[in-house]
Amino acid sequence: MRKKKSKKVTKKRSQKTYRSLLFPRLTIMSLLGLLLFGIFFQRSPTIKLQSNIQTLPKTLTLRREATPTQTVLPEKKPHALIAKALADDSKPQEYCINVPILFYHHVQPIAEAMVLGHAQFTVDSEIFRTQMEYLKANTYTAVSLDSIVDAIINRRSLPSKPIALTFDDGFADMYQYAYPLLKQYGFIGNFAIPTGLLGATDYMTWDQVTEIARDQNMRVYNHSFMHAGLKYISKDEVSDEITIAQKDIQEKLGLRSNIFVYPFGEYNQQVLEELRSHGYIAAASTLPGILQCESELMFLRRIRIGNVPLSFYGL
């Protein structure tokens, strides 16, 4: 009998122990289940959508019954670019004109240029002749750099189909080949002269430049004294390059121009300041293009011409 009781007591104790262990586990599992359900509820778009659908009628009813209030919309402002355009319209527009300015370095038979080693900078004299014929046949009017600058500053009209012909560096072939053809076709020529090189081999002499300067259709401009790269030298040297050539042209030719032609087409802020300090109001660069603007008078655009028809350049 005692043995049976001990077995029953042991069985009851084991059942209690099992229940005591099972209950916390069930509780923990229930809590975990609720937690996972909550996370799923929040993340599940389906359940979220059903919740929204269930509350949607109440939301609509409340809004319909509420007293409507006036909504103040923010003032619309024009887009920044539109505002800038509107502001610009109220200001005077910059004055610009379309004038092609052609420039040449050498004009001579190409065979001669090959011997002298500058064929890449040369327009064959016969091709140059056909180019002048083309301009004449297409009713272009050759003008001076002075006329272009004056037209921009003073809003003056230029002749129909204006074009400027410029010749840099004062080489002897300009006098021998280009100058006679300019006279033959009645065109104005603009010669940029580095005065310190005149009389040297392959350069014009002062007598030849004087003859050109006395021709009413020709113009002579300052191209520095020794054709120096102005942006690579000191301020004092820049000043000398400008003023010595300016003095030579004034004393030997009786001319005073306020237009400069950059050697190599190069310049920097120091060069611009020196030119302005000596009274120059415009300068010819080697920047490509034909649009000449008031704000860019110190950078007049030019087109370098080669051994091709002028129609190649859109003329």
Which key phrases capture this entry?
alpha/beta, TIM Barrel, 2 domains, 10 helices, 13% strand, globular, disordered N terminus
CATH architecture of the largest domain: Alpha-Beta Barrel
**Oligomeric organization of the protein chains:** single chain
**CATH homologous group name of the largest domain:** Glycoside hydrolase/deacetylase
Shape: globular
Instruction: Give the termini distance in whole angstroms.
Output: 132 Å
Structural commentary:
There is one protein chain. The protein is α/β, with parallel strands linked by helices. It folds into two domains: 2-58; 97-313, Glycoside hydrolase/deacetylase (TIM Barrel). Helices cover 49% and strands 13% of the residues. It has ten helices and twelve strands. It has helices spanning 2-43, 45-65, 80-89, 110-116, 125-137, 145-154, 172-185, 206-214, 235-253, 269-277, and strands at residues 96-98, 101-104, 106-107, 122-123, 141-142, 162-168, 189-193, 218-222, 259-261, 282-284, 291-293, 303-304. Strands 2, 5, 6, 7, 8 and 12 form a six-stranded parallel β-sheet that branches. Strand 5, helix 6 (145-154) and strand 6 form a beta-alpha-beta unit. Helix 5 (125-137) runs parallel beside helix 7 (172-185) and helix 9 runs parallel beside helix 10. The protein is globular, with a radius of gyration of 44 Å. Mean pLDDT is 83; it is low at 1-14 and 43-79.
Task: Give a short overview.
With about 325 residues, the chain is α/β, with parallel strands linked by helices. Helix content is about 50%, strand content about 15%.
